[in-house]
Amino acid sequence: MGERIAAQPVHSARLELEPLRPDHADEMAPLLDDAALHEFIGGEPATLDELRERYTRQAVGHSPDGSQRWLNWVARARDGGAAVGTTQATVSATDGVATAEVAWVVVRSQQGKGYAVESARAMVQWLKDQGVEVVFAHVHPEHQASMAVARAIGLTPTDEVVDGEVRWWG
């Protein structure tokens, strides 16, 4: 499973998840240029060049040593085609069990419409269809919206805290 899995188009009722390409940076940079999106994860918005460089690395689809698969998507509204955010999964195998750490971001202008839950659910279902057995996420303990998404996709909080974020497992 792990060596073969690569991001493919994923469809949901209202969204299309497009496998990430470096040229997505041109569209996504202005949408992600929002300090509020970093309130819980830290850092600051990437410049266009930084985002293009990051997307170029991520689009390769795997870590340099091949131990992880990097699956990244741009979430796009089916009605009108506007980009609404991104989803990502880092897939690896531990003792023969395929696991995926997942994350999601919805641009602020599109928040509150259920896109985070819908895109994360679609991604997780696709991952399970590919043989991923365990899904987890790290969520800041004060990020109510992300905790709601984690619950909605079947994750539950653990007592484990990594870099100030609670590990959610499912």
Describe the fold and architecture.
This protein has 170 residues and is α+β, with helices and mostly antiparallel strands. It has a single domain (10-169), classed as Gcn5-related N-acetyltransferase (GNAT) (Aminopeptidase, 3-Layer(aba) Sandwich), CATH 3.40.630.30. The chain is 26% helix and 33% strand. Strand 7 (156-162) and strand 8 (165-169) form a beta hairpin.
Defining traits:
170 residues, alpha+beta, Aminopeptidase, 4 helices, 8 strands, globular
Secondary-structure map with pairings?
Elements: E1 10-11, E2 15-19, H1 24-32, H2 48-59, E3 69-77, E4 83-94, E5 97-106, H3 115-129, E6 134-139, H4 144-152, E7 156-162, E8 165-169
Helix pairs in contact: 1-2, 3-4
